[in-house]
Amino acid sequence: MLLRISKIFEFQMAHSLSGYDGKCSNIHGHNYRFVVTLQGQPIDNLNNAKNGMVIDFGDVKHIVQQKIIDIFDHALVVPQHSPFASIEGTKKVVTDFQPTSENLLIHFASLLEGCFPERIELYSLQLYETDTSYAELICTP
């Protein structure tokens, strides 16, 4: 029996979409909501402290915090060809891609690859840019 569990994270981030034909070409920020969904079988071992869990939510929090949130929270994220890439004196992540929600999800999936036990699959990622707009990456066919 496969079960899915999800953990929700919130962080603030600024970005700029270089070459975009609208307001988002300017530096602006969002209150992001990031949902990580994992799939697996619950541990079935009475001698295991995590018996009955697919994975401990605390373990998920630790991994995602270290691999994504600590890096992107309160950062300015811009592509390397952006005129904003040379801004000094701020927490900044310079990417080799346009930092859209879609591309960020692909990047986040690569950062999480191999971080969970082999018996756990990364099922999907959702990134809410606003309360009503989000992108979703399905990681498991």
Describe, in plain words, how this protein is organized in 3D.
The protein has helices spanning 57-72, 101-112, and strands at 3-15, 28-40, 75-79, 92-95, 121-130, 133-138. It has 141 residues and is an alpha/beta fold. The protein has a 6-stranded mixed sheet. The two termini are 17 Å apart.
From the 3D structure, determine the CATH topology: Tetrahydropterin Synthase, Chain A
CATH structural class: Alpha Beta
Strand content: 35-45%
SS element count, helices: 2
Report the CATH architecture. 2-Layer Sandwich
Helix content: 10-25%
Low-pLDDT runs? none
Number of strands: 6
Describe the structure using short key phrases:
single chain; 141 residues; alpha/beta; Tetrahydropterin Synthase, Chain A; 6-stranded mixed beta sheet; 6 strands; 20% helix; elongated
Topology:
Blueprint: E1 3-15, E2 28-40, H1 57-72, E3 75-79, E4 92-95, H2 101-112, E5 121-130, E6 133-138
Parallel strand pairs: 1-3, 3-4
Antiparallel strand pairs: 1-2, 2-5, 5-6
